[in-house]
C-alpha cells in the first residue's frame, strides 16, 4: 500500500516538475502539518491515505480561514456517485480519477489557479473600496462640519492630522508595489496614492523639465459634488501630496492650479523644485 502511494506521488511529481515545484506527504496528518509551512497554491489529495483520508484532510482545510481558499483536487481510483458527493461535501474543487492523465491534470491546475487569482483580485478590490469609503466618510461628512465649529487656530491642526491619517491608512493597507517606490518618481507615487481614493490622476513633466511636475485628474478623490460643497477637501488633496513629498524626502513644493471643488473641469497640481 505504501509503495503504491509513493509510486503515485512520484508519477504526479514527474507530470508537474517542468511547471511547478512540489512538496509531498504520504499520510493525511503530515499533509495538514505541511500546508501552513509550505503555503501551496494548489493541493492534490488522494482519497485513500493513512492517518486521515483525503476527505477528512480536505474538510479540515476548508474549515480553516487560513487555508479555505486553496484549491483542492481529489485524486481517486473511486468513481462512484457517492464518492463524488463525499468529495463535494468535504469542499473539493476538482476531481481526477486514476490513472491520472497528464494533460488533464495540468489543465485543471491552470484553471484553478486562474480562479484563485480572480478571487484574490476581487478581495483586493473590495478592500480598496472599503478603504475609500472609510476615508471618504470621515473626510466628507465629519471634517467640513467640524471645521465650521473650530476656532481658526485649530483648523490647521485638524487638517494636518487628517492628512496624516489618510496617507498612513493608504500606505498601511496597500502593498508597496501599488503605491510605488522612489525609482518610479515622486509624481507617479503621488498619483498612485491619491488614486487609492478613487481618483484618476496622472503625472507628466511640466514646461521646465525635471524642475516641474504636473499632477492632473478629472475624477475627484472626494467626489465632485462633495468637493464643490466643501472646497476645503481640495486643501486636503494638496496636503496629501505635500505629506508624500515629505515622506520621500523630496525638495519640492506643491502649487494648486485648478480644482474641481472650485468649479474647474479638472484638478491640476504642480510640483516645483525648491531652489536654495
What layout of secondary structure does this protein have?
Layout: H1 2-16, H2 28-38, E1 43-46, H3 54-63, E2 72-76, H4 81-90, E3 94-97, H5 102-149, H6 152-173, H7 176-179, H8 186-195, E4 202-206, E5 209-217, H9 224-229, H10 232-247, E6 252-258, E7 267-273
Helix pairs in contact: 2-3, 3-4, 5-6, 6-10, 8-10
Account of the protein in words:
The protein has 276 residues and is of the alpha/beta class. The chain is 55% helix and 15% strand. Strands 4-5-7-6 form a 4-stranded antiparallel sheet. It has a 3-stranded parallel sheet with strand order 1-2-3, sandwiched between helices. Strand 2, helix 4 and strand 3 form a beta-alpha-beta unit. Helix 2 runs parallel beside helix 3, helix 5 runs antiparallel to helix 6 and helix 6 crosses helix 10. It is elongated. The chain starts with a helix and ends with a strand. About 3% of the residues have low confidence.
The backbone outline, from C-alpha atoms, is elongated
Helix content: 55-70%
Overall pLDDT confidence: 80
Biggest β-sheet, characterized? 4 strands, antiparallel
Rg from alpha-carbon coordinates:
27 Å
Class per helix and strand makeup: alpha/beta
The helix count comes to 10
The first-to-last residue Cα distance is 79 Å
Amino acid at each position: 500500500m505504501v509503495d503504491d502511494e509513493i509510486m503515485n506521488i512520484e508519477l504526479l511529481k514527474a507530470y508537474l516538475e517542468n511547471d511547478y515545484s512540489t512538496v509531498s506527504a504520504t499520510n493525511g496528518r503530515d499533509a495538514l502539518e505541511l500546508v501552513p509551512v509550505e503555503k501551496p497554491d494548489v493541493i492534490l489529495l488522494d482519497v485513500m491515505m493513512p492517518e486521515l483520508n483525503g476527505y477528512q484532510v480536505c474538510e479540515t482545510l476548508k474549515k480553516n480561514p487560513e487555508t479555505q481558499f486553496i484549491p483542492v483536487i481529489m485524486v481517486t481510483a473511486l468513481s462512484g456517485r457517492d464518492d463524488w458527493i463525499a468529495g463535494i461535501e468535504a469542499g473539493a474543487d476538482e476531481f481526477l480519477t486514476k490513472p491520472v492523465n497528464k494533460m488533464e491534470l495540468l489543465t485543471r491546475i491552470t484553471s484553478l489557479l486562474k480562479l484563485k487569482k480572480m478571487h484574490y483580485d476581487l478581495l483586493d478590490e473590495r478592500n480598496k473600496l472599503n478603504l475609500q469609503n472609510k476615508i471618504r466618510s470621515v473626510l466628507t461628512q465629519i471634517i467640513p462640519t467640524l471645521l465650521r465649529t473650530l476656532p481658526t487656530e485649530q483648523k490647521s491642526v485638524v487638517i494636518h492630522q487628517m492628512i496624516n491619517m489618510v496617507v498612513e491608512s493608504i500606505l498601511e493597507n496597500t502593498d508597496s508595489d501599488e503605491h510605488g517606490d522612489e525609482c518610479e518618481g515622486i509624481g507617479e507615487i503621488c498619483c498612485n496614492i491619491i488614486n487609492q481614493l478613487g481618483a484618476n490622476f496622472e503625472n507628466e513633466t511640466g514646461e521646465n523639465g525635471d524642475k516641474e511636475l504636473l499632477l492632473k485628474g478629472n475624477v475627484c478623490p472626494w467626489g465632485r459634488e462633495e468637493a464643490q460643497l466643501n472646497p476645503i477637501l481640495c486643501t486636503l488633496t494638496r496636503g496629501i501630496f505635500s505629506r508624500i513629498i515629505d515622506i520621500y524626502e523630496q525638495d519640492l513644493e506643491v502649487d494648486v492650479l485648478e480644482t474641481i471643488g472650485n468649479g474647474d473641469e479638472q484638478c491640476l497640481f504642480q510640483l516645483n523644485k525648491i531652489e536654495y
